[in-house]
């Protein structure tokens, strides 16, 4: 059995084998193993629920693959509400002819990431479609988690006077995908930052429940996410370009390729907005963790101009940092 | 290093401010300068007395609607593969139609990074007519010329160029002779000047007493150039100076100039919002006429108008700032542009929309 055939999605014997030999083998847990039509779950209190579909090209890239991405992506989204992610579902759409080993590698990577995040993949579905109907593999993951904050965190809670922190260097994922796709190699260790952030976030929100906003700057990058927050909260945000952590190699790579790191996707970073008096504490917590070691304060929330993000440039000038418009890089996640 | 640059910039800004007793309007005529001035935040540091105006420096933007119509015509012909620079894809024509839409309907349009890519497509598809749509200034012309020479050498029969190339110095002459345009100095384009050198600009100083400085693209380059411009304006010793000596030689690039005059000859160029400027365009010379798409397909200019309500013509001449266009940011945004100045990343309207904090006029 070296390639996936239409039979594997038929629901018949071949499907059964695929489920046993790949999915159950790697993702096994009590709930999934029952193999019933639905997963039976126990959850407490308020729920955070999120879904995302992953169509990334290429499916394997330095620092991760579509498997690690589809677990950490949804786990992170659930966590941003101030929640503990618990269970994930996964739906596969696989192109006929895909390498069996590649699929196994992806599922293994999902299992490893789920373990890292401390969550269970409890139900799933597989469809195989004729060649050309999808590009190798698309995966949907949906998941639930328990909200542990009294009021869930939201992009609309930023207040003038708050401080804006970013949990680490930005642009890594976007540039990795772009350059891998184009076959360009960089002369430094370029890799995606793809990682589940829920444990770091749990520590942060339990120790600093005063946090106002958590958001992960995925598609559209830091610039777009900051703009979304500014709009949702009806505030202005001022950011200092020099303080935004960007690896020197990423900066150079972007210059050469005509990309702006502030608009590149990230898959293992988050923005944290909180009252100033808690910012030092937050930085300490973040910087002690490998996933937050490059965390920095990059700016502040102001009263006006409402709904806009202003960038202070290295020479001390000011300009608008606008929302990504038009020049979107497709299939980045 | 960084704090030094900041220091230097502050000092220059103060000195410029000290020199100016009346408002000084300078114009840049290069899309890269437009973007640099916004993106570095330099524009926000100019005092009220220093006015920045963008001129006709964005290649996509200056392409006349009648020229756009020719390209659209070609794209609609059955056996033609039209090869273009990416920005052209989203420029609306007089009907509001774009090449992107034509492609979705089945027209064969390929994006190229260089005219050589286009020649390659021609070699690989001998049964198709491959046309490269040449737009841009003296910077891009030499590679287009070299590609035509190459095609001639290789005996390629199915390749041609729709030349909509434009020359910067004649446009500058047009601007300084227009009565209703007030410019006290020019920030001259770094890239174009690497090809043409200093001499073609000399008429600005000699005939019109307008100082002009060829400048690099860092904030500090631009500010130094502005400083030199103002110094000349006040001191009375008006010349053309070259601030960008690390890239621009006084005589320019001789080899590139030779290719241009070998393959092209000046003719009357059509500019958006302006119309014809004498000697400001380039057409393919007789020696290479079989590569001239206008002749090959017997293309004729039609009488077409600007997109309705779009004021790109005035924006390109620095007559109005983009946010004075009633459509700016409302009906016209980078996502659904009405005119080319909002399409191209180098267009004034797009730069204003993306980086602008408000008008400097
Ligand atoms: S804002 Fe749009 S419509 Fe107005 S001049 Fe610029 S491109 Fe034309």
Write up what this structure looks like.
The complex is a heterodimer of chains A (333) and B (361). Chain A has helices spanning 13-27, 30-33, 66-79, 100-117, 172-182, 198-207, 221-233, 248-257, 279-288; strands at residues 47-54, 60-61, 64-65, 83-95, 120-129, 137-147, 163-166, 213-215, 236-240, 271-274, 296-302, 309-312, 318-320. Chain A is α+β, with helices and mostly antiparallel strands and 333 residues long. Chain A has two domains: 6-147, PurM-like, N-terminal domain (60s Ribosomal Protein L30, Chain: A), CATH 3.30.1330; 162-320, Phosphoribosyl-aminoimidazole Synthetase, Chain A, domain 2 (Alpha-Beta Complex). In chain A, helix 3 (66-79) runs parallel beside helix 4 (100-117). The two termini of chain A are 29 Å apart. Chain B folds into two domains: 27-310, 3-Layer(aba) Sandwich (Rossmann fold), CATH 3.40.50.11740; 312-354, no CATH class. Helix content of chain B is 41%, strand content 16%. Chain B has 17 helices and eleven strands. The mean pLDDT of chain B is 94. Chains A and B meet through strand 12 and strand 13 of A and helix 1, helix 3 and helix 17 of B. Bound molecules: iron/sulfur cluster. Iron/sulfur cluster binds at residues 310-312, 315, 322, 325, 327-328, 332, 337-339, 341-342, 349 of chain B.
Explain the layout of strands and helices.
The complex is a heterodimer of chains A (333) and B (361).
Chain A: H1 13-27, H2 30-33, E1 47-54, E2 60-61, E3 64-65, H3 66-79, E4 83-95, H4 100-117, E5 120-129, E6 137-147, E7 163-166, H5 172-182, H6 198-207, E8 213-215, H7 221-233, E9 236-240, H8 248-257, E10 271-274, H9 279-288, E11 296-302, E12 309-312, E13 318-320
Parallel strand pairs in A: 4-5, 9-12
Antiparallel strand pairs in A: 1-6, 2-3, 4-6, 7-10, 7-11, 8-10, 9-11, 12-13
Helix pairs in contact in A: 1-4, 3-4
Chain B: H1 2-19, E1 24-28, H2 31-39, H3 42-45, E2 50-54, H4 59-62, H5 65-76, E3 80-84, H6 99-104, E4 108-111, H7 115-124, E5 129-134, H8 141-154, E6 159-163, H9 168-177, E7 185-188, H10 190-196, H11 202-208, E8 212-214, H12 219-235, E9 240-242, H13 254-263, E10 264-271, E11 275-284, H14 293-296, H15 312-316, H16 340-343, H17 348-355
Parallel strand pairs in B: 1-2, 1-7, 3-4, 3-5, 5-6, 7-8, 8-9
Antiparallel strand pairs in B: 10-11
Helix pairs in contact in B: 1-12, 2-17, 8-13
Bound molecules: iron/sulfur cluster.
Iron/sulfur cluster is lined by residues 310-312, 315, 322, 325, 327-328, 332, 337-339, 341-342, 349 of chain B.
């Amino acid at each position: 059995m070296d390639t996936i055939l239409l039979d594997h999605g038929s629901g018949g014997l071949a499907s059964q084998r695929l489920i046993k030999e790949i999915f159950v083998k790697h993702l096994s847990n009590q709930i999934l193993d029952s193999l019933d039509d639905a997963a039976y779950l126990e959850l407490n209190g308020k729920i955070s629920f999120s879904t995302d579909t992953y169509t990334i090209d290429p499916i394997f890239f330095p620092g991760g693959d579509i498997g690690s991405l589809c677990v950490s992506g949804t786990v992170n989204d659930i966590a941003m509400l101030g929640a503990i992610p618990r269970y994930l579902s996964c739906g596969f759409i696989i192109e006929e002819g895909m390498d069996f080993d590649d699929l196994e590698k992806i599922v293994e990577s999902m299992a490893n990431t789920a373990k890292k995040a401390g969550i269970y993949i409890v139900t799933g579905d597989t469809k195989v479609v004729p060649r050309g109907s999808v590009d190798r593999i698309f995966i949907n993951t949906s998941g639930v988690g328990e909200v542990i904050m009294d009021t869930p965190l939201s992009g609309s809670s930023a207040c003038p006077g708050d401080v804006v922190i970013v949990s680490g260097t930005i642009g890594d994922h976007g540039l990795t995908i772009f350059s891998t796709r184009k076959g360009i190699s960089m002369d430094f260790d370029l890799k995606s930052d793809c990682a589940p952030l829920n444990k770091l976030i749990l520590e942060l929100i339990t120790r600093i429940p005063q946090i106002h906003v958590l958001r992960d700057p995925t598609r559209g990058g830091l610039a777009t996410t900051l703009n979304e927050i500014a709009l949702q909260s009806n505030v202005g945000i001022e950011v200092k370009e020099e303080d935004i952590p960007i690896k020197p190699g990423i900066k150079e790579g972007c210059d050469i390729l005509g990309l702006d790191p502030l608009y590149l996707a990230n898959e293992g970073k988050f923005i944290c907005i909180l009252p100033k008096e808690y910012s030092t504490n937050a930085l300490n917590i973040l910087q002690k963790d490998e996933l937050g070691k490059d965390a920095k304060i990059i700016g502040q929330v102001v009263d006006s101009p409402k709904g806009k993000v202003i960038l202070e440039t290295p020479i001390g000038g000011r300009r608008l940092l606008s929302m990504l418009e038009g020049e979107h890089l497709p299939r980045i996640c | 290093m960084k704090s030094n640059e900041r220091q230097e910039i502050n000092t220059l800004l103060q000195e410029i401010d000290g020199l100016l007793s009346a408002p000084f309007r300078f114009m840049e005529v290069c899309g890269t300068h437009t973007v640099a001035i916004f993106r570095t935040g330099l524009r926000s540091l100019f005092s009220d007395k220093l006015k920045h105006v963008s001129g006709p420096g964005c290649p996509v933007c200056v392409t006349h609607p009648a020229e756009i119509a020719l390209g659209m015509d070609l794209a609609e012909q059955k056996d033609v593969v039209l090869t273009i620079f990416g920005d052209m894809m989203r420029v609306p024509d007089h009907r509001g139609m774009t090449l992107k839409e034509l492609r979705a309907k089945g027209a064969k349009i390929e994006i190229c990074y260089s005219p050589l890519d286009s020649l390659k497509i021609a070699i690989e598809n001998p049964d198709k007519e491959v046309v490269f749509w040449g737009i841009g200034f003296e910077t891009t012309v030499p590679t287009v010329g070299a590609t035509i020479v190459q095609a001639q050498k290789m005996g390629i029969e199915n390749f041609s160029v729709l030349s909509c190339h434009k020359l910067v110095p004649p446009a500058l002459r047009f601007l300084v002779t227009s009565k209703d345009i007030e410019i006290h100095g020019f920030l001259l384009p770094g890239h174009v000047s690497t090809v043409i050198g200093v001499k073609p600009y000399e008429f600005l100083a000699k005939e019109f007493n307008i100082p002009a400085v060829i400048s690099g693209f860092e904030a500090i380059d631009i500010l130094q150039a502005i400083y030199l411009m103002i110094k000349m304006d006040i001191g009375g010793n008006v010349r053309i100076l070259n601030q960008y000596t690390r890239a621009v030689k006084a005589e320019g690039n001789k080899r590139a100039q030779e290719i241009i005059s070998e393959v092209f000859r000046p003719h009357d160029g059509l500019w958006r919002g302006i119309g014809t400027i004498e000697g400001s365009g380039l057409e393919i010379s007789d020696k290479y006429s079989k590569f001239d798409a206008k002749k090959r397909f017997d293309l004729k200019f039609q009488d077409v108008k600007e997109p309705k309500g779009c004021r790109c013509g005035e924006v390109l001449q620095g007559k109005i700032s983009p946010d004075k266009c009633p459509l700016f940011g409302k009906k016209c945004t980078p996502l659904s542009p009405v005119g080319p100045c909002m399409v191209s990343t180098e267009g004034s309207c797009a730069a204003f929309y993306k980086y602008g904090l408000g008008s400097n006029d």
